[in-house]
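Researcher: Sequence recovery benchmark, item below. Answer with residues only.
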């Protein structure tokens, strides 16, 4: 391992409940009723990709841009209002990776403004040598683009990177990028198939750094 790449939602911050809540609220605001089960298949995808699919499925009149404008404003409001802390073990993992002089990147499907809000809230921005949003590459997860761009920015071959993910779409993206992947079982991320991951852990502290 020559670099470590984090997903963010469900890995650094336990934000999937926020996303589910606001996405369901957004649908209700627009006149549609959905459940968390309806939304779990979109975990790990970018907002534009998710809403393009939902808009077609439900025959929504609003544009993707109009939907995201409401949704993102509400998500940032909720992020600032709720009492979030980093997921248990994340700060220790970041510190150990830094101690080992391993470059660290973040590759998230969230828009950059949300990423920056999270990292600023936890005061951990300086740990990351590269930050890439899935909205800044041609295709979001499960395509590998966001992970390949993170590796490029770090100057490391994809095969030398290890990724930490909590979603099916994210694991697929990491493996399609040619990287090794740790699947973190986060019960708040819904029913996620992490079977393609090289390792699966139930706690961040269980990540086998010595084997990487």
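Model:
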């Amino acid at each position: 391992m020559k670099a470590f790449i984090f997903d963010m939602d469900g890995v650094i911050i336990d934000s999937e409940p926020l996303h589910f809540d606001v996405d369901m609220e957004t649908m209700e605001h627009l006149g549609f009723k959905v459940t968390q089960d309806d939304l779990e298949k979109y975990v790990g995808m970018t907002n534009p990709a998710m809403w393009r699919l939902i808009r077609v499925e439900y025959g929504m009149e609003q544009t993707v841009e109009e939907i995201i404008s409401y949704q993102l404003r509400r998500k940032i409001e909720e992020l600032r209002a709720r009492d979030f802390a980093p997921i248990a073990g994340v700060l220790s993992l970041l510190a150990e990776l830094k101690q080992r002089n391993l470059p660290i990147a973040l590759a998230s499907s969230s828009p950059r403004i949300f990423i920056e809000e999270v990292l600023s809230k936890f005061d951990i921005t300086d740990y990351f040598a590269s930050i890439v949003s899935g909205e800044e590459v041609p295709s979001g997860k499960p395509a590998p683009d966001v992970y390949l761009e993170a590796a490029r920015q770090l100057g490391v071959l994809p095969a030398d990177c290890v990724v930490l993910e909590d979603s099916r779409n994210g694991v697929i993206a990491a493996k399609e990028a040619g990287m090794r992947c740790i699947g973190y079982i986060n019960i708040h991320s819904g029913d996620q198939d992490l079977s393609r991951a090289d390792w699966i852990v139930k706690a961040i502290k269980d990540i086998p750094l010595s084997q990487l």
